[in-house]
Design a protein that fits this description.
The chain contains 2 helices and 11 strands. It is an alpha+beta fold.
């Protein structure tokens, strides 16, 4: 993940789910926030790490990756992951700018789609759904956890 001597370039939260709307069946929700200094070079490691972690429960009860299920992914842009409290307010000064954030988010979603499709067997129905960057959204999530993991890159 990140070298502890430097600040992270991105933060994600993975939420194992039974169901999430923008409707996926089994898989995971990835909340993602990019910080100032994040570049495209970060994306291959992020996506590979997130999609290969054994955080999903298979029908047999074994923990497997979303690629092994195979499962689907819902990606949600989550700028609030970059917040720091100051007094009774939150500040987001370390978040990446909107244009660069949009570009990285779109590239992250596309890379997730490519890796999920490449890793799924023939005939497997897998999807990557995603929210819209920079907008408030309503999310409904059912989980059988709590299985929530914070990852920094």
């Amino acid at each position: 993940m990140s070298d502890r001597s430097s600040a992270p370039a991105a933060r994600t939260v993975l939420q194992q789910c039974v169901q999430a709307t923008l409707q996926i069946d089994r898989g995971m929700v990835i909340y993602v926030c990019f910080f100032k200094g994040a570049t495209d070079d970060l994306l291959p490691k992020m996506v590979s790490t997130l999609l290969n972690l054994r955080l999903c429960e298979s029908p047999s009860g074994r923990m497997v990756s979303v690629l092994e299920l195979p499962g689907s992914v819902l990606v949600v842009p989550q700028a609030t992951l970059g917040g720091k409290s100051k007094g009774r307010s939150m500040q987001y000064h370390n978040n990446i700018g909107k244009e660069d954030g949009q570009r990285l988010y779109d590239a992250f979603v596309a890379r997730c789609q490519q890796e999920l499709e490449a890793g799924a067997g023939p005939g497997a129905e897998v999807t990557v759904k995603h929210g819209t960057y920079g907008n408030r959204q309503v999310l409904k999530l059912d989980t059988n956890g709590p299985y929530t993991h914070l990852m920094e890159f």
